[in-house]
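Annotators were shown the component list below and the corresponding predicted structure, then asked to write short factual statements about the assembly.
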Amino acid sequence: MGGPASPAAPGSAVAAAVVAILSQLCGAAFLYAILKADGGWEVTGLLTLLGLGFFLLERYPAMGDFVTASLARVPLVTMATAAIVVLGFPFLVGSNTYILHLLIVAQLYAVLALALNFQLGSANIPNFATGASYGIGAYVSALLALNFGMSFWLTLPIAALAATLFGFIIGVPSMRTRDTYLALVTIAFGVVVQQLLNNFEWTGGPNGLVGIPAPSLFGHSFASPLEVFGWKLPSQANFYYLSAALVVVAIVTAQRLHRSRIGLAWNALRADEIAAKAQGINVAWYKVLAFAVDAFLAAFAGTIYAFYISYISPDNFTFLVSVTIMTMVIVGGMDNIFGVIVGAFLLTILPEKLRAFSDYRLLFFGVVVIGFLMIRPQGLFPQRLRQYGAHR
Amino acid sequence: MSVLLKVDNVTMRFGGLVALNDVTFAIEKGSVLAVIGPNGAGKSTLFNVVTGVYKPSSGRVIFDGVDITGKPPYEVAQRGIGRTFQSSRLFSDLSVLDNVIIGMHTRTKTGVLDALFRPGKSGREMAACVEKAEALLQFGSGDLFEQRYRPAGTLAQADRRRLEIARALASQPKLILLDEPSVGMDDAETDALVADIKRLRSEHPELSVILIEHDMRVVEAFPEHVMCIDYGSRIAEGSFETVRADSRVQEAYLGKAAAHA
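Structure shown to annotators:
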């Protein structure tokens, strides 16, 4: 291992821009292809292609560095391309509401995975209660809307604050334990929340809450189709853009925390708690903080989910949901924002696409996940060292 | 000169084992204390008691006029005690530069809300940290600065020790505790280390240093104040010459028979 001088960036800004645009378009094209894919052979073919791509990336890490450096070199071009891709995708998909639905769920899971990434990725805290925070967000906002007629936009922050409080409540006792025991405490909290939702009368018990009204913005109801410049998009497109906005919020939050001393403190306690304390880091406080931030973001996702589906029940927020989110972070790449999002998309879309294998669906799903982890043991996009100043 | 750290009758018991037995000593501002003693004598335990990793069974630790006995380690660090560890505890999956920046944790302020809503402020603070960290990496011997974007876990042994010292200095401590800084260094590197510590003292005359050492070449370089610990007790204290001549110290190191031969 040589000391990496400046990362391998392409010579000219124009070349970097071309790489930035092409790489993102390739990603979008692949996403489109896999969403459209039908039947076992097509899906298998695409997965093989993806596996091959990651194999090459593992074999020649310089490739990845080159693309990353290009993207970082022309941040405006990168962001503009990303914005166009995200905004334009529903037009590409057209009236296929099933694909839009998948994308909405994938984006909500991306937010949940980014939320958990603060803990699992940055600070190595195995929190199995993200599903519970997600549920608390969904229930608080739904109850406020159904019982008090509150608007979606008002319930959003209230639900987030309620879930943050919950994050503190699990965070504080969890600090007395660590590793495996910590995982057990969070599992217990997750199960308790789900059981409470199941048994309380005011949460609707196992029947859940029905008839959550669709939000509206400037008089436009999210339940009605979206019309843009004469293009008519199905009503799901409203929620697609809403959840895309939330993903942006989650990315910005993650990036800002990651680059600040808070992200560094989390990384420090992940690497060595005793050494972190010796640097003056209040380890217990930073762990609780990670719980709170996780719950805050997860509650946003929960609120959008509740208003999108308009029906929630305790079954939506089981232990299995928490495990799924955790798998997304691990497969995608711990402490890598982009990787976590890719993990969330892959693991949301894959089980749907594997329906072609009917009874063997879950088996095949497991094999694919293990396969990717074998190709990329550190996750699809592993964490990267921070770069500063001219190095960035 | 005033007293910076005062350790008063500190005893540390682990079950039936007495790791430190009624140890008392003091160190003045701007001075160096070398702690020597055979393996297992309780030297590292002493550091752990001072830095709050262990709460002593009895006795008091007074730092800068404040009783810090049993205070949590992060609070002790905030009060101005930096330290290194015997088996270097670096943040191995982070870059060399990040390790030093984390050392500045007590000197930086950005909270969650600032990080989220005032990225400019947070970014400026981070940029200042990078600048200071780079200066620290250039200060010592070796070429840590050139290796600043390497993961700390891939450094050679001597560089690991140097990086730990740089990280401890990043918090601008009043007192720095070095636990066997020369372990894993060859003679030339050890000489460079001694020169580094001397230069550090001349640039920061207020800084006090306590170092645990087995290498007598290092101890010899700081001969004013040496303390020898054996079986948890302080058996000798004074200048290097006095301590070296002490018969109990010779016994501790060489065994009774050899010392009297």
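Statements collected:
1. Chain A touches chain B through 36 residues (CB under 8 Å).
2. The longest strand of chain A covers residues 226-228.
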